[in-house]
Every structure is written in C-alpha cells, then in structure tokens.
Design brief:
0% strand; 21 helices
Length: 456
C-alpha cells in the first residue's frame, strides 16, 4: 500500500485488509466441516464430544471477544489485529500436528481467540475509517470476507479430499494428505493468516482511536489522506467534540442514555445465531450425507451453499446503504423463519436431497443478504467512540455465545428429536425476533457515528 495512495482507493485497501480478518474467521470456523466425519471415526467421538470439538473454536471466540474490546481501547485497533493474525498461524500449525481430540480442541480454542479478536475489532476498525454514506457497504465487506472464507474452506476441503483419494506420496506427506487428510484441511489456514499479518504492516491506526489518545495530529493526517483536507477538518472537529462529551468509562455504557444500545448489542447478535447458521456452516457436508449424498458429493454441495452465501452478501453490500438497516433485518428474520420451516418439513417428509438443497440455498441467500452483514453494521455503529471497543466486545461475545450454544446443542438435538424437528425449532425462534427489530432497532442509514451517538 504505497504512501502515494489517497482517497477512496486508499480507504478501500485499508478496509479490504481489515476485512481479511473476516476471511480468516470464515475459513477457520468452517474448515472443520470437511474433517468432522474423519475425526468422529479416528477419535471415536460421542455426540457430546463431537459438540465440544465443533464448538471449541467458538469457546475461544467468546474468550477473545471478552478481552478484545479492552485491548483495542487500550492498545489500539491495529495491535489487536496483529495479535489475531499470530493466533491464527499458531492454531493452524497446532491443528495439523494434533495427536488427540484434546490437543485438537486446544488448538481450535487458540484459533477461536484469534477469531474473537478479529470479529470484534475488524468491523469496528472499518466503521471508524468509513464515511457515513459508505459505512454500511464497507462494514459489509467484512461479512463478504467471512462468506468468501467459508467458500474457500469448502473448496479447499473438496480439493484435499480429492487428493487423498487419487494420490500417493510415499513419504511424510502421506500422513497429511492421504491417511489423515483432516490435518491438511485444518492446517491450510496458516497461508491466509500469514498474508493477513504482512498486509497489516501497511495500514494505519484508526484515526478515531488516535483522537482518544490525544494524538489528534496523527488522526487528522489519516483523515486528510482519506477524505481530503476540508472534509477531514470538519470530521475531526465532530470527533473531538464527541469525545469531550464522553467519560470514557465502561460504566457509561450502562447509563440510562445508552441502555437501549446495550440491549440491542446483546440481544440482536444472539438472536441472529439462533437461526442455526453455524449448524449449516459447520455441519453442511454431514447434513447432506444424511440427506442421501455421498461424501464427495456432499462436500461439493456444501461448496454450492458457500458460493450462494458469498453472492448474496454482495447484494447486501450493494443495497444496505439504500435500503437501510431496519428493513433488512425485518426481511431477514421473516425470510429465515420461512426457510427453516421448509427445511424442517422436507427432512421430516423425506422429500429427497435436491429439494432440500434448494431450501438450503434459499436459507443461505436470505441470511447472507440480510442478517449476515446487517448485524455487524448495526453493532459497529451504535456505540460512542471512547468505549466502542469494550461495548463491541459485549456484542460480539453475545454473538459467539449464541453460536456456541447452537453448535454445542445441535448434535444432541439431532440424535434426540431429529434434524427436521431441530430446524423447525430454529424457525419458531425467528418469529419473535421480527417483533424485536420492529420495536427496538433504530434506523441509522446515512448518519455519521457522531450523529448516531447524539441520537441516544
């Protein structure tokens, strides 16, 4: 990223680099979907142990999200993103070398902490960089990167599975690429993680965070490079005024003024995960095997789901700053309820695998175009600057708590009430979520972060 770059090109490259944290989020959390059937057999996993293995990364996510906000407010957004990159690298190497389910769980927890750091800080970093009229789209780049990471993990798993069934190396590579191919699947994340670390060397710190650290000159220089001198001066004045009105104390979030922002930040992310998105992303190949596909076909079908996930996220990026946040969320919860009822009924009625694939495509299209980016945009913009990091920690922690709960309970629900009834249950939960959005979520389309703060 040359020092000559300015304006929208410079802004886009900064946001794209931060969004690579989302790619690692998607890749790291979904890559295990290709290995779970091998791991279940090799380590003789019970349903409960399978749930722990699948949700172990999410436990790390919760731990990472819990402290990432304090670290980001104390040491800066960029420092936490650096740390997340190294955790991704360490986790990938550890996963590839794990010799038991216990070590694999530990390795996944380490990667999960990296995910928690990136998931909390990256969208906040982008939100603080972006001008009001582009903020929705640029923060949605983060969700697009998650979907791209998920898709690449599916494609990588399919490619590695093909290698394992058609190749022989006659050396140590046989263990990683043939006999225990799950090692190559889980270890492949180290490549994009190292790229993320290198690119972070080229991006600046958040100008809004610099203002909270009394480094206004540095912040103004970054704003000028992005927006030009005149607009930067106006934006800097608004930031300075806003920060002077904030105490910077975490208890400010629990004041009556920001009480509703706190409720939204805790409830909305949790509800979005009760749609079962982690179940679909983590268990897609196994679910399609249950529906009647063979192992290689099931992985290929999961890749189709990943592809539509990415495509419809592009729709959200295109329209979120035009449609607004609230209509997007209402459409999302309503559409997901319908899709989940369809999936549940098709499983119960045993209507065949291809109708089921169509229902899953509809489900993922709705989620990707609505809740996927919409939730991240809302929680990245509703908090005051001085405590945004710690406040987003709570919101991200809530999201990962929902993910962990759904992922941990899915194998138990699958084995007790069946896959169809499980998806019907998810669909029922979506109905009251619509009413929560209608009653409590404000519309912040086109507003600056400082205007949103003044609106509470």
């Amino acid at each position: 990223m040359s020092m000559q770059l300015t304006g929208s090109v410079y802004l886009f490259l900064i946001c794209l680099t931060a969004a690579l944290g989302g790619f690692l989020f998607g890749f790291d959390t979904a890559v295990i979907s290709g290995g779970i059937n091998f791991l279940r057999v090799q380590f003789q996993l019970s349903a409960a142990m399978e749930g722990w293995l699948m949700s172990s990364a999410l436990l790390g996510c919760m731990a990472g999200a819990a402290v990432a906000g304090w670290l980001a407010d104390r040491y800066g957004r960029k420092a936490v993103l650096y740390l997340s990159a190294w955790l991704f690298i360490i986790s990938a190497i550890y996963c590839a070398m794990a010799d038991s389910a216990f070590h694999l769980i530990l390795a996944r927890i380490i990667g999960g902490v990296g995910v928690g750091f990136a998931a909390m800080v990256a969208p906040m970093f982008i939100s603080e960089m972006a001008p009001a009229h582009l903020r929705g789209r640029l923060v949605s780049l983060y969700q697009l990167s998650i979907t791209l990471g998920i898709l690449c993990s599916y494609l990588s798993n399919t490619w590695l599975l093909n290698i394992s069934t058609t190749s022989q190396f006659g050396n140590w590579m046989d263990l990683y690429f043939v006999k225990e191919v799950w090692r190559a699947m889980l270890g492949s994340n180290m490549v994009p993680a190292f790229l993320f670390f290198l690119l972070l060397l080229l991006v600046p710190e958040s100008p809004r965070w610099l203002y909270t650290q009394n480094k206004g000159a540095e912040g103004l220089a970054i704003l000028s490079r992005i927006n030009g001198s005149a607009q930067a001066a106006s934006e800097a004045a608004a930031i300075s005024t806003s920060i002077k009105e904030e105490s910077g104390s975490f208890k400010e979030l629990f004041s009556s003024r920001y009480g509703m922002a706190l409720i939204i930040g805790l409830v909305l992310p949790f509800l979005s995960q009760l749609a079962g998105i982690t179940t679909v992303m983590y268990y897609a190949p196994a679910i399609f095997e249950k529906a009647g596909f063979k192992t290689d076909s099931a992985m290929g079908t999961a890749s189709i789901i990943g592809f539509f996930n990415m495509i419809f996220t592009l729709v959200a990026i295109w329209k979120i700053d035009k449609w607004g946040r609230k209509p997007l969320l209402v459409a999302g919860f309503s559409g997901l309820s319908l899709a989940l009822f369809m999936i549940g009924w098709l499983f119960i009625a045993n209507q065949g695998p291809y109708a089921l694939v169509g229902s899953f495509v509809f489900y993922i299209a709705v989620f990707a175009a609505t809740l996927g980016p919409g939730v991240w945009v809302v929680i990245a913009e509703i908090y005051p600057t001085a405590i945004r990091g710690r406040a987003m920690s709570l919101a991200t922690l809530s999201l990962f708590f929902g993910s962990t709960f759904v992922t941990q309970t899915y194998p138990l629900l699958r084995d007790s009430i069946g896959i169809g009834a499980t998806f019907l249950l998810y669909g029922i939960i979506m109905v009251p979520s619509v009413f929560f959005v209608v009653k409590y979520i404000p519309e912040n389309k086109g507003k600056s972060l400082e205007e949103i703060e003044q609106g509470w």
